[in-house]
Amino acid sequence: DAGVTQSPTHLIKTRGQQVTLRCSPISGHKSVSWYQQVLGQGPQFIFQYYEKEERGRGNFPDRFSARQFPNYSSELNVNALLLGDSALYLCASSLAGQEYEQYFGPGTRLTVT
Amino acid sequence: GQSLEQPSEVTAVEGAIVQINCTYQTSGFYGLSWYQQHDGGAPTFLSYNALDGLEETGRFSSFLSRSDSYGYLLLQELQMKDSASYFCAVPFTGGGNKLTFGTGTQLKVEL
């Protein structure tokens, strides 16, 4: 079975621009979470979706938004990009009730210049 | 809030045993997970302790003491490929299921 997939792999944007990152979970996983990982730190939780509904939001500004589609894939949108948004954005999926065991995608490396 | 503290770096030689500690302060604690992340890679799940005690999975073991708010990951028969960052993480369901990750420990395995 395919693992969690993310696109694009790398992205370079300019301050003030908008970006959309995409994620496809493992087949059968209905829960998708997004994390931001800055170099040298652990992943920081951004959003969690389950059955297309937002189930959790981390301490991120409203410039960050996400959604989940009927096929359980998900998009993360970031508006008005700042230099500080440069990071690795990770998507993870899990089975319901087993959120302690999350399967991560390879991530999207976003660079904001 | 939640916080999980780990040593920033641990160095050990190939074939040795190393222990990576994690102390946490959380509310609504449900258990402690461990993840491994190689440079440039994605975190991968290693183990989960919901109850006190030791869980063994091959060369890796994980321990939890809820009364001490403490856990550790034990790696035996270290191999060069074990050089990576290791994160403890706690899931909780208050306000939405998510993982809060620790500060991370970079393990360097030397010959």
Can you describe this structure?
- The complex is a heterodimer of chains A (113) and B (111).
- Chain A is mainly beta.
- Chain A is built from no helices and eleven strands.
- In chain A, the strands form two sheets. In chain A, strands 2, 4, 5, 6, 9, 10 and 11 form a seven-stranded mixed beta sheet that branches. Chain A has a four-stranded antiparallel beta sheet with strand order 1-3-8-7, with no helix packed on it.
- The model of chain A has no long low-confidence stretch (mean pLDDT 94).
- Chain B has strands at 3-5, 9-13, 18-25, 32-37, 44-49, 53-57, 60-65, 70-75, 84-92, 98-101, 105-110.
- The radius of gyration of chain B is 14 Å and the shape is globular.
- With 111 residues, chain B is mainly beta.
- In chain B, strands 2, 4, 5, 9, 10 and 11 form a six-stranded mixed beta sheet that branches.
- Chain B is built from no helices and eleven strands.
- The interface between A and B is medium-sized, with 27 and 24 residues.
Outline of chain A: globular
Derived from helix and strand composition plus strand pairing, the structural class of chain A reads: mainly beta
Q: Note the overall shape of chain B.
A: globular
Helical amount of chain B: under 10%
Number of helices of chain A: 0
Structural key phrases:
heterodimer; A: 113 residues; mainly beta; seven-stranded mixed sheet; 0% helix; B: 111 residues; five-stranded antiparallel sheet
